[in-house]
Amino acid sequence: MKKDTVIRFMIMIASLAVASYLACILTPMQSDISQEKNFLTKAPVAGLHKFFADVAWMRFINFAGGLSSIDSTNVDKVSRMLEKIIAYDPNFVESYQSGVLSISNADPKLAVKLLEQACANPHLAHNIQIPFYAGFILSRTIVDQNNPDKILSEPDYAAAARFFRMAIQRTRDPESYLISNYIHAKAKARGGEESLAVLSVLYDEWKMSKAGKDEIYSDYCQIPDIEERLVKATREAKYPIDDEGRLLKPSQKALELIAKVQQEILFKKHLCENCVTPAAPGDKFCGTCGHAVKTWGVCSCGHILSSKAYCTRCGKKQ
Ligand SMILES: [Zn+2]
Ligand SMILES: [Zn+2]
User: Fold this and answer.
1) What does the mean pLDDT of the chain come to?
2) Ligand 2 mean position to 306 CA, how many Å?
3) Which numbered ligand comes closest to the C-alpha of 298?
4) Which pLDDT value is given to residue 3?
5) 281 CA to middle of ligand 2, Å?
6) Which ligand is nearest to the CA of 287?
7) CA separation for the pair 83, 86 (Å, rounded)
8) What is the rounded distance in angstroms from the CA atom of residue 242 to the CA atom of residue 247?
9) pTM exceeds 0.85
């Protein structure tokens, strides 16, 4: 054997030893310092996990798409396939958005669990649909399709509201459906008269936005159209209707809250105290219910003002 062959062979052995030493020492250290450990793939070869996830996803679509419905008879198999995809690639958005949703009627608890894990994944921190779906599943009663007497999951409105809130927090410009779902889930969690609960939720939101605080997140995200929502909720609390659409009398509690909201928030909107309809400039009585209203929008000269900067009759600056 040539001398340099022996040397090369020895260098190779030495570098293998160093490599395995580093692998043994560094890998646990890396895992210790990695805070995202739970969101890393469980696949052995880095980079290849996305390919594995894609293949598993195609198999999933083929299998689940071929089923007429995902129900108690096949949900275990479908769920296992889905969990495998998520284990390969926890950042694979499709597996949550369509995958998890497809099992939500057959195994709502597992669906919520998987979505909750995804909500905590920093790589998916800007995804709005994932917390929305979790809230959506949690705000419904879900029964077994093969056995309608068997309830798979009861609504948990408080938890649903937390997920809807998270979805709102994730966007600068939350869409109306997100806000409505959040407010209704929170109102349902409070219980009692629904229209009163909705109004009290909105009133609290308004107060929190003034205080700049949120019960869950430190950076408060204000509901953009809260005053319009308050006007509508005030009207609905004033004229509550039952399930058949019959008009009910508002409770004393509702009337107290309505008065508070009118005084503190809606006074700028010039609403009729009786029926919550906006009064036009110069009105002395409400056009809807005939109740006396506080007149506004009139110049000292008596001219009814338009939205211009100066009175068009006497020229006074408004
Ligand atoms: Zn009125
Ligand atoms: Zn004037």
Assistant:
1) 87
2) 11
3) 2
4) 82
5) 13
6) 1
7) 5
8) 7
9) no
